[in-house]
Amino acid sequence: MSIHSSLWNADEWATQGGRVKADWTNAPFVASYKNFKAEGCIWNPASASSTCSPGAWQTQELDAAGRNRIRWVQSKYMIYNYCSDLKRFPQGVPYECKQSRFL
User: Is residue 46 included in any domain, yes or no?
Assistant: First the structure.
């Protein structure tokens, strides 16, 4: 198992319409992961089930207070939401944008 990260020039679409420019003077950029622990699940298409235990993190949800905190952070700090970028997706937004925001 591995983790891949990428960085791309998003000046045109992810920076308030180009008003906030990316600062490339510190390139190359390096990312590292410390104490990363992944718990994978194996999907069985025949039974439409996985090996994840019922208590796995994937089954957890935010409570009302958690959803309100997320909304507050988004309203104060989120610059770009690709699910709202209809020019980027003229044929319709991606699947995950059609789901509940707080699954």
Answer: yes
